[in-house]
Amino acid sequence: MSESQTQPARSPVFEFDYITDPGVRADCHARYWELKETAPPVFWTNAHGGHWVCNTGSSVQHVVRHPEIFSSRYLAIPPNPNQPKMIPEMLDPPEHRPYRQMLRPFFESRAIEPLDARISAWTDQLLDEVAGKGECDFVEAIGSRLPVAVFMELFGFPMQKFEEFRALVTGFFHSQASNENRNQLAQAIVGHLAALIQQRMAEPRDDMISKIIGSDVDGRKLSFEELMSIGFLMFLAGLDTVTNAMSFGMRHLAHDEALRRRAIDDPAVIPDMVEELLRRYAFVATPRYVVEDIELEGAQLRAGDSILAPLPLVGWDEALNPDPATVSVERQFFRHAAFGSGIHTCLGLHLARMELTIFYRAWFARVGHFRQVEKGDETCRGGSVMALEHLHLAWG
Question: What number of other Cβ atoms are within 10 A of residue 137's Cβ?
Fold first, then answer.
């Protein structure tokens, strides 16, 4: 008996490929906004073996806030049982809670405050290298470098391996990387992590991985496998996220002279500017695995289905943010889900905000106004974490 005979057909259907859609590759935010205006609130696409797509802020929030129905056990579409487990991102309650409680103190505002001076120093060093040139590929020169430096220093990696690490990260996330190539890069990342963890287990230092090694979860120490899982998640999440936030923000600012002028004249507005740019240009579309039949905004989801929850839609919800298409630092509230929502809200959100604020302050003090050399040449990377692959800027 065929599947169509044993299961009702999924509807409504709206064909969309979140990885290779030409509109996503050209401008991911413009394409998702077009979907918001034209596609059903929750729809089925036959791409990647078939899955649902949330197309409203309310459906996205429902999915990410109900892990008992929408599981994180597979963070891939179609589900990949062989995907390396990343703790705590791929755990559901109650298994998830003790790991998150153990990690949270390392990322609280008080814990990351000492990094302020080091982030400023790294930012100044990167700006020293480009400010006098009058132009750069922003992603290559700054966006893909600053978060790597901050992560390596925070976690405990030797800084002399900076260029090697950056090459691993950019290669791993490159949209054209083959599965074979990405697996090879993942193994290289795992090798570096394993070496560092083994060193710190033998000789702890004053860095985050040593502190995690010394921590308890449910009254016991973490196993080597658990440490590797946590480290791999932090490696990927900590490096790509700030790069993407910075790149999308700078692309907007290249075309918004009034907001650039505001940031130059009144740097105190920059934290609000960071929040508003995160709201307008969130870039994660998180996959979830449906564990029980449920109706969601008129669509009948079935256990075993996958669903994609694009986080930008929360910030674009008119009920949460009036005139959501407009970037305005005058908003009373900046309601968005750029860092997720619910139990899997990003642990590193305070660190990300710190990096972004420090960078923008330094950029506007040093460089000031700038422009995009050729609009449309930047190319977007689709997938569950969207990104700009290039952004050519000029100034002076």
Answer: 17
Categorise residue 26: left if φ over 0, alpha if ψ from -120 to 50, beta otherwise: alpha
How many residues make up the chain in this entry?
A: 396
Q: Counting beta carbons within 10 angstroms of the beta carbon of residue 271, is it exposed (0 to 12), middle (13 to 18) or buried (19 or more)?
A: middle
Neighbouring C-beta atoms of residue 386, cutoff 10 Å: 26
Closest CA to 264 of 275, 273, 276: 273
Q: Which is nearest to 386 in space by CA: 247, 224, 253? A: 247
Q: What are phi and psi of 308, to 5 degrees?
A: -105, 130
CATH domain 3-367 topology: Cytochrome p450 (1.10.630)
Residue type, 325: A
At 206, is the secondary structure helix, strand, or coil?
coil
Q: Which of 137, 393, 349 is nearest to 241 (CA)?
A: 349
Tell me the residue type at 311.
L
| Full pLDDT tens readout for the chain, 396 residues | 334 444 578 999 999 999 999 999 999 999 999 999 999 999 999 999 999 999 999 999 999 999 999 999 998 898 888 777 889 999 999 999 999 999 999 999 999 999 999 999 999 999 999 999 999 999 999 998 998 888 888 889 988 888 888 888 778 777 667 778 878 888 898 899 999 999 999 999 999 999 999 999 999 999 999 999 999 888 877 778 899 999 999 999 999 999 999 999 999 999 999 999 999 999 999 999 999 999 999 999 999 999 999 999 999 999 999 999 999 999 999 999 999 999 999 999 999 999 999 999 999 999 999 999 988 778 899 999 999 999 999 999
